[in-house]
Automatic annotation (TrEMBL):
<keyword id="KW-0460">Magnesium</keyword>
<keyword id="KW-0378">Hydrolase</keyword>
<dbReference type="GO" id="GO:0000103">
    <property type="term" value="P:sulfate assimilation"/>
</dbReference>
<dbReference type="Pfam" id="PF00459">
    <property type="entry name" value="Inositol_P"/>
</dbReference>
<feature type="binding site">
    <location>
        <position position="135"/>
    </location>
    <ligand>
        <name>Mg(2+)</name>
    </ligand>
</feature>
<dbReference type="GO" id="GO:0046872">
    <property type="term" value="F:metal ion binding"/>
</dbReference>
<dbReference type="InterPro" id="IPR051090">
    <property type="entry name" value="Inositol_monoP_superfamily"/>
</dbReference>
<comment type="similarity">
    <text>Belongs to the inositol monophosphatase superfamily.</text>
</comment>
<keyword id="KW-0479">Metal-binding</keyword>
<dbReference type="GO" id="GO:0008441">
    <property type="term" value="F:3'(2'),5'-bisphosphate nucleotidase activity"/>
</dbReference>
<dbReference type="GO" id="GO:0046854">
    <property type="term" value="P:phosphatidylinositol phosphate biosynthetic process"/>
</dbReference>
<feature type="binding site">
    <location>
        <position position="136"/>
    </location>
    <ligand>
        <name>Mg(2+)</name>
    </ligand>
</feature>
<feature type="binding site">
    <location>
        <position position="133"/>
    </location>
    <ligand>
        <name>Mg(2+)</name>
    </ligand>
</feature>
<dbReference type="InterPro" id="IPR006239">
    <property type="entry name" value="DPNP"/>
</dbReference>
<dbReference type="InterPro" id="IPR020550">
    <property type="entry name" value="Inositol_monophosphatase_CS"/>
</dbReference>
<protein>
    <recommendedName>
        <fullName>3'(2'),5'-bisphosphate nucleotidase</fullName>
        <ecNumber>3.1.3.7</ecNumber>
    </recommendedName>
</protein>
<dbReference type="InterPro" id="IPR020583">
    <property type="entry name" value="Inositol_monoP_metal-BS"/>
</dbReference>
């Protein structure tokens, strides 16, 4: 691995590993079938807050001058109403930080809440800051499917470093992905991959739970000029992307019906190592939703450093310097760089056929 941003790489990897240990423990001890069937979000709420608190604490211990754009704030943990979840979060965070030797004495409740709120920075184009999604893929996490802990360093609007932990993704891409819920009660053998990307210095993968393992380079699969044998990685939830439009795009490109559906930025990780080839997150309806920067920063850099290109649906680069959202972009698409222009054209054709060509204009 290169020496560029070496301290930032080391700290970010440590932070994501600690966060993944927390989320895994939350899943194993707090989730149940009722969490999914009754849409009980309390486990993922506790996991979100705990992972964000741990990552924020570690980052600011090493880089006290940096800012953080996190997904959560502490409002729901405050007061008597928030006490039950606050107690659980406090226990998880303090156990994890003490085990990793980041603290000697437990954080107080006030320190815990402040640490979570250290993630309320608004971002922008003139600062160096981190952006964090503590559990990306809420429903995947609850089902025992794919989710990710995603952390990226952005400097003056450009993503420079991305680290992504995927606790339920097989370390070996040839190993079948576990079906939803299969990991409940299992030893999770062969699962847990961590991905690292540094701008201009490549993309790498390593087991989450092996701190001595060396980072191994990853590359996208070479499509050799044809989408015929390519596979989509797309969202499980229809509300997250226009799956019907995806199917039409596949038809236009001559792709087979070979789609992989999974939650979270694990889709970026999968295509970065050739376990899938094309990522589509197309606007639903009239396209009023604006993507959050923490949902794409780490994954986009990972794909780019693995030989791909990531853009919005019209081929515009993603702009991470406009605050907490990708305000200048609609949707996200990604594939191997030499094939990207063909993908942009196919997206445009499909949207025009649907009467949604207006989505291609600048927001």
């Amino acid at each position: 691995m290169n020496n560029h941003l070496l301290d930032e790489q080391r700290v970010a990897i440590q932070a994501v590993r600690v966060a993944c240990s927390i989320t895994t423990k939350v899943f194993q001890t707090l989730t149940s079938a009722e969490s999914v069937t009754k849409k009980d979000k309390s486990p993922v709420t506790i996991g979100d807050f705990s992972a964000q608190a741990a990552v924020n604490h570690i980052l600011l211990k090493h880089f006290p001058g940096d800012k953080i754009v996190g997904e959560e704030d502490s409002h729901d943990l405050q007061g008597e109403q928030g006490a039950p979840n606050r107690h659980k979060v406090s226990q998880l965070v303090n156990e994890a930080l003490q085990a990793s030797r980041y603290i000697d004495a437990p954080l107080s409740d006030d320190q815990l809440l402040q640490t979570i709120d250290d993630g309320v920075f608004e971002g922008g184009s003139d600062a160096r800051f981190w952006t964090l999604d503590p559990i990306d893929g809420t429903k995947g996490f609850l089902r025992g499917g794919q989710y990710a802990v995603c952390l990226a360093l952005i400097d003056k609007g450009r993503v420079e470093l991305g680290v992504m932990g995927c606790p339920n993704l097989p370390r070996d891409k040839s190993q079948p992905k576990p079906k939803d819920g299969e990991i409940r009660g299992s030893k999770m053998e062969g699962l847990g991959a961590l991905f690292v990307a540094v701008r201009g210095h490549g993309a790498y993968a390593v087991p989450i739970d092996d701190e001595q393992a060396e980072l191994v380079p990853v590359r996208m699969r070479d499509l050799q000029g044809s989408f015929k044998g390519a596979a989509f990685c797309e969202s499980v939830e229809a509300s997250h992307s226009s799956l019907g439009t995806n199917a039409r795009i596949a038809q236009i490109l001559g792709m087979s019906d070979n789609h992989v559906r999974m939650d979270s930025q694990a889709k970026y990780a999968s295509i970065s190592r050739g376990d899938g080839d094309v990522y589509l997150r197309l606007p639903v309806g009239v396209g009023t939703y604006r993507e959050k920067i923490w949902d794409h920063a780490a994954g986009a850099l990972l794909v780019e450093e693995a030989g791909g290109r990531v853009s919005d649906i019209a081929g515009r680069p993603l702009n991470f310097g406009l605050g907490r959202t990708l305000a200048a972009n609609r949707g996200v698409i990604a594939c191997q760089t030499p094939m990207h222009a063909k993908l942009v054209d196919a997206v445009a054709q499909a949207l025009k056929e649907e009467g949604r060509a207006a989505l291609l204009a600048e927001p």
